[in-house]
């Protein structure tokens, strides 16, 4: 097994991988940018390296700097986590060239699957169903506009190199097509250094259902069942669950087999995910392959009992998969909620600031994957996901109630979070019935505003008591002496002049 | 003690008097007699008759954060001096986020229509569009491509009127 | 389902049950003695009742006081946890008489199983194997001495009403018999109000292996596999695991069936445990039945995916078991370590004091069941168990490493704990091989002393740095001005004059 | 600064000087130059050459607790004045725990043999036996049945000598 591994990431995923390594007796090296010097992943790692400037391109995306440091500390492997360099084939290649094991698939496979157009072609050739669309190389506006009309509206514009909703636009009519293409290209250029896009049919009642794959370097490939990831805002998943409420035994078997075929078609190794779109009639289409550990991997771990991060390390160490497909059992139900520093009542705008208090819910079958703690500052440099809350129970109904309990006990003060919003989604009667699609948030929560009834009485009483305890005596006197005839001294609620 | 809390553009006026662990809170013409204990810093257990309120309160630089019953409220304690204060006007021309300007769609003298995109700001790997809040003429553009912009800064000035 | 349940307990088990109730939408009522007024179980419950005097008989063992309070707050059920009133048939009866549902088996069954002699007779009649011994009613010293010689040495003296090592003595030779019987009787009298004892053959290479049972009130009984509980100090379990390293598929099936037979023989309902002794040749004998939720129930939950506390509530609500024996699967491996405030290098003497800092390890498949937190005081009134650490993994080897990692990151400052000791046990090569018996601690750790090499260099450096940061300037000056010729000013380690 | 730490009847003498975040620690004739940061109250990250020490230190009323590398050490900082201090003598006649006396086996004037049980104390539902540390005659019995006894209190006085 590796003696030392560098984790080229930050936040909760760096923490999760560091712990997996430490449990296996592998020494860990964290990297961090200046603003992250006191972050939990730095605190728990055995060693840590300052990458300097917080701008991602100067730190967590800086390939030469990371590779040089890995060499200088003698790391035998690099785990890229997700995001940043996880799906960058040049990084995987650079590791390989320097004799460092990249903990993930081969660079060629990352490159192939990273090109969404080539990926679809490869899958079509392997008889994996794909969504109709335009995946051509001609990227001029005239061609794209023409092809877009052929595919028909609504359609999706997607960045060829994209992922996680970046460089993606829904186009409802011809009018919006050009501006959407332009904007998607620009976002993709900035995020991935590539402005190529493709167009795709937009499905009716679409669900996003993906299959987890593990493949060793000896030709063995298994799938670890599905994850339902339809609950998305701004095309980013916020709630994932498994099993999917839409799934039948037969469909699961068929999609699972297809996922294994897809992975084998590209000679895939290590952990990966085949993302499918499933329509209202349970037709499924290959969407893309994520060549890395997913954010939502814990729900698969909770229901299968398999530690995916540890298997990534074992596979990268040339170990053969000892788990057989027939021995795998999906048991119980798991949900993940992503805790974001963002404002759901204001277009999910990220929120920054100092975390004045973080207190996590805990109990049986409650898993907190977190990269933050009290007094840490949330900066605008990186993704605003603070933590993941993963719960599991014997069945979906119990589990939804468990998640609502856990969210109700999740304290994050100092930045605006999506916690209340997540709770409202879980409490929604259509969610409880399992009637979800990727449009769920847009359909039911478009104009959602937190606390639309204002500050509740209990909060007012609590604040008054708190201030009464914490206000210094001289201040109390000053307040007491305030003009008793002031028009502001009536006691109640009123709207400020706007 | 007389206190004013501001929460989402509303002001809540409340008085509180303390006698040991007993507090007399008056709000909206009702008086509440409550017993309260601070179990840990910021964590209060408050008894109002039969009811128990459990909450966690934390102070930021400007705001107080109240966690109560699974919900969080951001509240500012304000001093009112008898002068009616004017609430901060939220302008749709101000940046909703700190980030980098990636594209400026207008220049001085341009005429824009309501909802036209005038600037694109990128932060945390997402794009945010600034749209014109009304029809008008561009008087001044405050940022250019690649500039850093802070939350609340005004992207551009428009002549025209709010619809 | 119940609307409101009172939890007649404290510490981690009260916390665990309160959370189970809350997830199910049941309001909870905590009870507490004066010294526990700020304990976590009081903080998280929806309501709480002060029982006053910390002496157990005045508070957590005070049946009339608890029942009256349950009535006055309108609790429909009482969950007794473990210890205190959990196995007190009078309490179960008193609940029943007042129309409050006791969440556990019927009073008669508790009474029958609480009498170890009657319990064995009942089991023998049901063809469940039992250990040879004297279980007679004659309790005079002459009879006991004579019967003891018949059973032969070594033998065990056990309190008829006992449990958890209380009122239990091992007797190696005739000489010790009388004093041991006397002492066991006294301890039993004080703990259970009953000084009746029995004598029992002491087995070779004995393992303590128990089976978890769930029985509904409609005649359905299932078992949830075994727990290996051989690692004990002073006859109390400190490390439990499942599956047992000694178990074979056949033995598991046979013991499981026997456990179900045993439960059915007494008309058992709700959650319970059949404790067996297993000798070096894998012969097994019924030892006793615990008519309650066990301390170590989480390892069964981790490997079966079943929430035992929730099932207790469902069964008490007349629900039928929906889990069938054939659908149950034991998956992966789970270990529990009991974190005690006690000093393993000094006869496991309990330690009291204020917890200056508590920081729990966390990560995937790490469960912390705890009833304490930073700044809480550990008083001499109750059992010194602070918390339970439960970890699970794909297999035993990985799981032992995981537990060692977790214990190494478990911070409890302010009282002496057994954490370092637990780690040493897990690291022992015979433990790793699974070669364990109930004598394991006595055999390998009799004279164990923590940190026998004294304070390590790193601790000395850390302390010096800490004090340098935290000593006020004027004090530093005073230290600087200390007599430079003092004989104490040589720098190193020396033993104090004794 | 010169400091003495007591740990399990041993004294450790150490000096430390600070310059910003750099510390010079001398122990047992070696000097260590270390860089240290207090990440959170009591949580230190200390770099000694290539090595990183992570520890958590917490202060009780009398003792400091050091968590390091999975182990915990209870340490007392003591002042030594040049007078050789005598270590506290652990007497086997003192109670190892606070609890209740459940049985007294001896009375004044009795003769006891080494290891005879002289008193039984119950605490936290467990029994602890006080045994005679040597052969001797009972001079005084300080507690009777049902008395409360505190940790360290002397159960009885014996005449005789330690073997």
Can you summarize this structure?
The complex is a heterotetramer, with 2 copies of chain A (498 residues) and 2 copies of chain B (163 residues). Chain A is of the alpha+beta class and 498 residues long.
Describe the protein's architecture and organization.
The complex is a heterotetramer, with two copies of chain A (498 residues) and two copies of chain B (163 residues). Chain A contains 17 helices and 24 strands. Chain A is α+β, with helices and mostly antiparallel strands and 498 residues long. Chain A starts with a strand and ends with a strand. Chain B has strands at 2-7, 10-19, 22-27, 30-40, 43-48, 51-59, 64-68, 71-78, 99-104, 111-112, 117-123, 126-131, 136-141, 148-149, 156-160. In chain B, the strands form three sheets. An eight-stranded antiparallel barrel of chain B has the order 1-2-3-4-5-6-7-8. A four-stranded antiparallel beta sheet of chain B has the order 12-11-9-14, with no helix packed on it. The radius of gyration of chain B is 23 Å and the shape is elongated. Chain B starts with a strand and ends with a strand. Residues 82-90 of chain B have low confidence and may be disordered. The interface between A and B is large, with 73 and 76 residues.
The dominant shape of chain B is elongated
Strand order in the largest sheet of chain B: 1-2-3-4-5-6-7-8
Approximately how much beta-strand content do the residues of chain B carry?
over 45%
Unreliable stretches of chain A, pLDDT < 50, 5 or more residues? 481-490
Give the total of beta strands of chain B. Answer: 15
Mean pLDDT value of chain B: 83
Helix content of chain A: 25-40%
Tally of individual helices of chain B: 0
Total DSSP helices of chain A: 17
Structural class category of chain B: mainly beta
Beta-strand share of residues of chain A:
25-35%
Number of strands of chain A: 24
- Helix-strand sequence of chain B: EEEEEEEEEEEEEEE
**What is the subunit organization of this protein?**
heterotetramer
The helix content of chain B, as a percent range, equals under 10%
Q: Please give the radius of gyration of chain B in angstroms.
A: 23 Å
């Amino acid at each position: 097994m590796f003696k030392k591994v560098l984790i080229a990431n930050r936040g909760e995923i760096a923490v999760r991988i560091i712990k997996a390594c430490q449990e296996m007796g592998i020494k860990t090296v964290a990297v961090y940018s200046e603003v992250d010097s006191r972050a939990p992943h730095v605190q728990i790692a055995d060693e840590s390296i300052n990458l300097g400037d917080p701008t991602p391109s100067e730190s967590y995306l800086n390939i030469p700097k990371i590779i040089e440091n890995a060499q200088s500390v003698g790391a035998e492997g690099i785990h890229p986590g997700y995001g940043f360099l996880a799906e960058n084939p040049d990084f995987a290649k650079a590791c390989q060239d320097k004799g460092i094991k990249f903990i993930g698939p081969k660079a060629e496979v990352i490159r192939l699957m990273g090109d969404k157009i080539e990926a679809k072609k490869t899958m079509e050739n392997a008889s994996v169903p794909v969504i109709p669309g335009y995946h051509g190389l001609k990227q001029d506006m005239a061609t794209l506009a023409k092809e877009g009309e052929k595919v028909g509206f609504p359609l999706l514009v997607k960045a060829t190199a994209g992922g996680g909703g970046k460089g993606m636009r829904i186009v409802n009519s011809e009018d919006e097509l050009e501006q959407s293409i332009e904007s998607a290209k620009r976002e993709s250029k900035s995020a991935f250094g590539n402005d190529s896009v493709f167009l795709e049919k937009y499905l009716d009642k679409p669900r996003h259902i993906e299959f987890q794959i593990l493949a060793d370097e000896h030709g063995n490939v298994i799938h670890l069942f599905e994850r339902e990831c339809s609950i998305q805002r701004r095309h980013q998943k916020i709630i994932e669950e498994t099993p999917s409420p839409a799934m039948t035994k037969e469909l699961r078997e068929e999609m699972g087999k297809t996922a294994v075929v897809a992975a084998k078609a590209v000679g895939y190794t290590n952990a990966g995910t085949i993302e499918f779109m499933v329509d209202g009639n349970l037709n499924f289409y290959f969407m893309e392959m994520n060549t890395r550990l997913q954010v939502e991997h814990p729900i698969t771990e909770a229901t299968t009992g398999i530690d995916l991060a540890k298997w990534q390390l074992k596979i990268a160490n040339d170990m053969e998969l000892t788990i057989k497909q027939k021995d795998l059992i999906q048991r119980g139900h798991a949900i993940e909620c992503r805790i974001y520093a963002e404002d759901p009542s204001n277009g999910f705008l990220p929120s920054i600031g100092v975390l004045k208090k973080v207190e996590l819910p805990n109990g049986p079958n409650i898993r907190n994957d977190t990269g933050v703690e009290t007094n840490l500052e949330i900066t605008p440099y990186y993704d605003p996901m603070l933590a993941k809350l993963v719960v599991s129970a014997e069945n979906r109904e119990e589990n939804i109630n468990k998640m609502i309990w856990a969210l109700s006990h999740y304290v994050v003060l100092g930045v605006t979070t999506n916690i209340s919003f997540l709770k409202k989604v879980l409490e929604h009667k259509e969610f409880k019935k399992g009637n979800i699609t990727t449009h769920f948030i847009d359909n039911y929560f478009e104009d959602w505003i937190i606390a639309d009834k204002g500050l509740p009485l209990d909060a007012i009483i609590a604040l008054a008591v708190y201030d009464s305890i914490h206000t210094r005596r001289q201040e109390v006197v000053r307040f007491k002496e305030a003009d008793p005839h002031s028009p502001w001294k009536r006691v109640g609620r009123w709207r400020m002049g706007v | 003690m007389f206190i004013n809390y501001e929460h989402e553009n509303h002001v809540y006026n409340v008085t509180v008097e303390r006698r040991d662990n007993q507090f007399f809170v008056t709000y909206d013409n009702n008086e509440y007699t409550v017993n309260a204990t601070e179990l840990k810093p910021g964590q209060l257990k408050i008894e109002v008759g039969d009811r128990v309120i459990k909450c966690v309160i934390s102070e930021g630089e400007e705001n107080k954060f109240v966690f109560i019953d699974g919900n969080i409220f951001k509240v500012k304690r304000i001093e009112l001096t008898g002068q009616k204060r004017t609430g901060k006007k939220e302008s749709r021309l101000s940046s909703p986020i700190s980030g980098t300007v990636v594209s400026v769609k207008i220049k001085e003298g341009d005429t824009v229509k309501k909802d036209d995109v005038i600037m694109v700001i990128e932060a945390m790997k997402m794009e945010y569009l600034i749209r014109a809040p009304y029809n008008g003429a561009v008087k001044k553009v405050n940022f250019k491509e690649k500039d850093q912009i802070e939350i609340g800064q005004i992207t551009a000035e428009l002549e025209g009127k709010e619809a």
